[in-house]
């Protein structure tokens, strides 16, 4: 009888522990390798299952490959990222500062194969990985956890096939120079962003079984058409993305991005049959930016955000917590969503 009682206690504790399990995905971007990077301590203490570095892992602004290699050499001296690699699944995609050579920011980059080889080697991508040789860039997809707690993480590549956007006229840029709500780029109705190969690949990935899907990009999926880099400036591509999600009847989708130097949580109610939530990573250690106006932002933009966190709590009724964290890992802003609302 005592043994039976102990067994019931153990079973009850086991169920309680299982009910408290969570999956944590941390997001970061924009590293200045020449400056102190204090946030790695907080990221290591947060113990995320996955850390995604969403572009601009070094501030290279390279004129040639030597400039890019020199930036990585400086970055490699820091211990924090190396420790995080050992304790979490560390994945990365690129942005303008760690992709472009001599101002070539997209498919026009003549050194993109050399940049890819060094990028993936530095971030320790296995030599057998499809990313080393796939023709549509360095997009990556993987699943964390087992059913019924599978989280699919999809990193998109918005550089490999990208057609550069045009800048606004010089007079317009000068007149808006002091208005932080207006950027220098023009929207392009038909400009390419992913390329057909990556669109086909993405459809295949979204057809795989998973309870939650997290789509990640180096720049915001949802943003105003204000002249700053975002999917909103690639109008046809943004429309195609949400049409694909809708046509495939994909549920439980969350969006994450880098590319801006402040944190924000965004809710867009009209893009799918359920509200779409998006969280930004803030910046690892670059200068803060004043948040631009955006009526779909939930709460205030947080310039001191150093990383974002997506935490899925596998309760009887699963929830998702989105939070913006400062350099010490403290929450600046957060929101909790019932997973059942995302379907």
List keywords for this structure.
12 strands; single chain; 343 residues; alpha/beta; 6-stranded mixed sheet; 20% strand; Purple Acid Phosphatase, chain A, domain 2
List the helices and strands and how they pair.
Elements: H1 2-19, E1 22-28, H2 39-46, E2 50-54, H3 65-75, H4 79-87, E3 89-93, H5 112-122, E4 140-144, E5 151-155, H6 170-175, H7 196-206, E6 212-217, H8 235-247, E7 253-257, E8 265-268, E9 276-280, E10 307-313, E11 319-325, E12 331-338
Parallel strand pairs: 1-2, 2-3, 5-6, 6-7, 7-9
Antiparallel strand pairs: 1-10, 4-5, 8-9, 10-11, 11-12
Helix pairs in contact: 2-4, 3-5
Folded structure, characterized:
With 343 residues, the protein is an alpha/beta fold. The chain has a single domain, classed as Purple Acid Phosphatase, chain A, domain 2. The strands form 2 sheets. Strands 3-2-1-10-11-12 form a 6-stranded mixed β-sheet, covered by helices on one side. Strands 4-5-6-7-9-8 form a 6-stranded mixed β-sheet, with helices on one face. α2 packs parallel to α4 and α3 runs parallel beside α5. The N terminus is likely disordered.
End-to-end C-alpha gap: 46 Å
- Major pleated sheet: 6 strands, mixed
- Fraction of residues in helix: 25-40%
Q: What is the succession of H and E elements?
A: HEHEHHEHEEHHEHEEEEEE
Q: Kindly give the count of domains.
A: 1
The CATH superfamily is known as Alkaline phosphatase D (PhoD)
CATH topology name:
Purple Acid Phosphatase, chain A, domain 2
Strand fraction equals 15-25%
**Quick one: CATH class?**
Alpha Beta
Rounded to the nearest angstrom, the radius of gyration is 20 Å
Counted beta strands: 12
| Strand order in the largest sheet | 3-2-1-10-11-12
Q: What's the tally of helices? A: 8
Query: Which structural class best describes the helix and strand composition?
Result: alpha/beta
CATH architecture: 4-Layer Sandwich
> So what's the overall shape?
globular
